[in-house]
Every structure is written in C-alpha cells, then in structure tokens.
Amino acid sequence: MMRRVPLPFVKYHGLGNDFVVVDGPLMDAARARRICDRRRGVGADGVLTVLPPRTAGATATMHIFNSDGSVAAMCGNGIRCVARHLADTRGLDGDLVVDTDSGPKRCTIHRGPGGAVEAVSVEMGPARLEGEQEFRVGGEALRALRVSMGNPHAVLFDAPERARALAVGPALERLVPGGVNVGFARPGPSGIDLVVWERGAGLTDACGTGACAAAVAAVSRGLARAGAPVEVRLPGGALAITVAPDLVGVTMRGPAERAFTGETDL
Ligand SMILES: N[C@@H](CCC[C@H](N)C(=O)O)C(=O)O
C-alpha cells in the first residue's frame, strides 16, 4: 500500500451521526471512502473538511463527503460538529457563520454553567417545499413530499422503523437523479418519530437535514405547529426543530460531541 502523509483528524458525532473532521486541504473522494470504512478505516458516516471562508464575515467553509465518497451540499448534524470544532480549536463562542455549498449558515454555540458546549443551534433555511411525488418500489406505490434543505429529501409519512427504511430506502434513493435522502416520519401530538435512509451513507442514527425536512413536511400538512420547537426523535436521540410560518426559515438545535482525535495514513 502507498504510504501517505499522516493526516490529523478529530472524530465527532451528532446523535450518533458520526464524522471525521479535518482541517483542509480537501482530500480526494477515494481517501474519504477509505477513512469512512468501518472495518478497514476510522469509520464514519462522512468526512467534513474545514476550508477557508468564502463569504465576508464567515469563519470557515464546510465541505461534505458522504461515506461512499459522494459530495453533499449540506449536512445538519455535520455543521453542528464543525461549529463545535471551530469553537474548540479557535476559542470561538456565541455566533459564527459557516459557509456551505448551500450557502452561509449562522450557528450559535450554547454553553452550560461550567463552560462546556451543551448544544449548537443552526439557522438551516432556506427550506424549499417541492411538492408531492409518487414512487414505485417493489410494486408498492409510495407518496412522498419533496423538501430541499440545500440537499434533497423525500419525506414519507410511513412507519419510522429501520426495517422499513432498509426495505424501501436503497431503491427509492436511486429513483431520483443524483439520489435523494429518504425519511420515514410519523408526526404526533408530542413530536415526530423519524428514521432516515441517507443518500451516500445508508441508514444513519440521525440526520439533521432529514429532521428539518420532516418538520417542514409535517407543518405544511398541519401535522405539527409552526413557530415553536418540534421534537424530532431519531434512533440516536432528539433534535429541536423550529419551522417558521413561511415554511422557509428553519432552526435546528442539538448536541455535537467530540469523541477522539487521531492521525491516519490511509
Ligand atoms: N447526515 C446529514 C446529511 C448528510 C448528507 C446527505 N447524506 C446527502 O447526501 O444529502 C445531516 O445530518 O443532515
């Protein structure tokens, strides 16, 4: 195997949606795939690269590789981890802006009484409701609401179960050119239960943009309230998502945990 220059990284996760975070430069997709491999690599749902900012006032740019090496324009759990990384490594606090391929996003670092980072909130909009679409998977007709959170989502009001996501997700992901993230959402009076089959990463413990898309879809159908936090419960834990009455503004709040640091020559 070719020996590469050791690459320092920090492993983070948001509700079990886990990422290898590196400070640039950008690696190639094949290296990202090797790093994400859970048996032969570090293991992660994606690699997030922190690059110089693109817009005035921003602190950095986040580049996203999914575990299969494909590139995504936005990642909700990932941006909380990047904001936490910037807070930890650059001594930042309060508000900061992170540029992404879907535009600049304002993040806020929330600290507990001891000063530890307790949560990160992110202005995730603009959301775009793209209407209903019917998909055929294995002879079954499935209706989904298409929502863009900068990346594409198909939200099904369907059983929020891993088995269901595994049975339907892989085929449905490929029915949209460029792929789509597939959410299985059950809205109720106390919030939304959700499982997401992610484009380029498969079944994950949590998906931040998926939680926002499910909340937008539910509010648009009168199944959740606008203007107040909606609890979106994923296998890895819960996010608080607030959808503005215009269905465009969306705020997400949730944890970003640092797991370990390392160096890889993969
Ligand atoms: N896990 C992420 C979304 C990552 C990108 C997605 N798989 C895509 O390809 O669009 C999140 O927390 O939003």
TrEMBL record:
Residues at the site labelled Could be important to modulate the pK values of the two catalytic cysteine residues: H153, E198
Signal peptide annotation: none
Entry's Gene Ontology molecular function annotations: diaminopimelate epimerase activity
Keywords on record: Amino-acid biosynthesis, Cytoplasm, Isomerase, Lysine biosynthesis
Pathway connected to this protein: Amino-acid biosynthesis; L-lysine biosynthesis via DAP pathway; DL-2,6-diaminopimelate from LL-2,6-diaminopimelate: step 1/1
Catalytic reaction list: (2S,6S)-2,6-diaminopimelate = meso-2,6-diaminopimelate
Subcellular location: Cytoplasm
GO biological-process terms attached to the record: lysine biosynthetic process via diaminopimelate
Amino acids binding substrate: N17, N66, G76, N77, N151, N181, E198, R199, G208, T209
Coiled-coil regions listed in the entry: none
GO cellular component labels: cytosol
E.C. number: 5.1.1.7
Iron is among the record's keywords: no
Annotated family: Belongs to the diaminopimelate epimerase family.
Entries under PANTHER family matching the protein: DIAMINOPIMELATE EPIMERASE, DIAMINOPIMELATE EPIMERASE, CHLOROPLASTIC
Function in brief: Catalyzes the stereoinversion of LL-2,6-diaminopimelate (L,L-DAP) to meso-diaminopimelate (meso-DAP), a precursor of L-lysine and an essential component of the bacterial peptidoglycan.
Protein name: Diaminopimelate epimerase
Organism of origin: Anaeromyxobacter dehalogenans (strain ATCC BAA-258 / DSM 21875 / 2CP-1)
Gene name linked to the record: dapF
